[in-house]
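Readers of this paper often ask what the protein records in our data store actually look like. This encoding replaces a full spatial description with a residue-level series of whole-number codes. For reference, a complete record is included directly beneath this paragraph.
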Amino acid sequence: MRYLGNKTRMIDNIDLFIRDLGITGKTFCDLFTGSASVADFFKDRYKIIANDLLESS
């Protein structure tokens, strides 16, 4: 799925989704990191693995 643009508006929904489902773990994988706003939000709670096709990422 391509999501062009900043995912900052979605961070609260992603966080709520993880909490509501009771997902646990020590690593957060941001496979389409782009500007890394999502990875940055979760960096205090998880080890971050970030990936993107864009060289600027």
Q: What stands out?
A: The helical segments are 11-20, 37-42.
